Amino acid sequence: MTNKLYQRLIIGVFLLPGIWSTQLHAQEVGLSFSYFLPKNGYFSVPISPFSIRGVGVDLNDYFALQTGFSLYRMSGLNIKDIDDFSTKDPLVGPNFTFMIPLELVLQFIGKQQEFRIKAGGFGFGTFDNKLKYGNLDKAIRRFEGWEVANSDFDFNSSLGFGYFFGAEYVVYVTRQWGLTLEANYFIGDAGFELDGSYTGGNTSGPLETKQVEYTDARLDYTGLEISVGIIFIQ
Predict the structure, then answer these.
(1) Are residues 79 and 218 in contact, defined by beta-carbon separation less than 8 angstroms?
(2) Which pTM was predicted?
(3) Which has more pLDDT, 19 or 79?
(4) Which of 9, 78, 114, 152 could be bridged to 40 by S-S, CB 3.0 to 4.6 A?
(5) CA-based torsion, 102, 106, 111, 112: positive or negative
(6) How far apart are the C-alpha atoms of 190 and 119, rounded to whole Å?
């Protein structure tokens, strides 16, 4: 995707909480620190303070709609659905990843505590991507049965989508603010086409070069998110 399109998407992310506040008269705004543990990836941290969650509106005493966004500096994500091989090592990273959820919340409200069950969908995008050639070459060596391999790929990343579910526990310190502890499990992916070549072989024989194209490859956004934050009551 072009840099200009990414700039428009990022501007939209930052405007989203304000739009919800204006149109839906948001009752709560949350500022959280979220940590992501991706499947077959590396532990990743948020770019503070760019994680605003819990912007929403109560539909009735039990149900609410919420949204927000988080911006992550992902240490490593995996690529799945590569035709020739698979690996449990991350193949992409570090990169920047922004994620926007939209969730339906079932809430059980007490005097000073709340328990919330959440489920919904999300969209995400990545930029400043880098391939982890060390892990990629290792996967190619294993697939080909070679002793050495060296790869060179171009890639094209797309926006991705998925779904998630989780729960949140809230303790209100005062009538104006409270503390939250939340865990969500995300399952999603995005197109991540690979096109290039790799060269390798065994020390006892000649080197071989192969041209390959993996048009069905997907960037895997699957993992556990743990958030600690503050909710402000409006």
Answers:
(1) yes
(2) 0.84
(3) 79
(4) 78
(5) negative
(6) 20
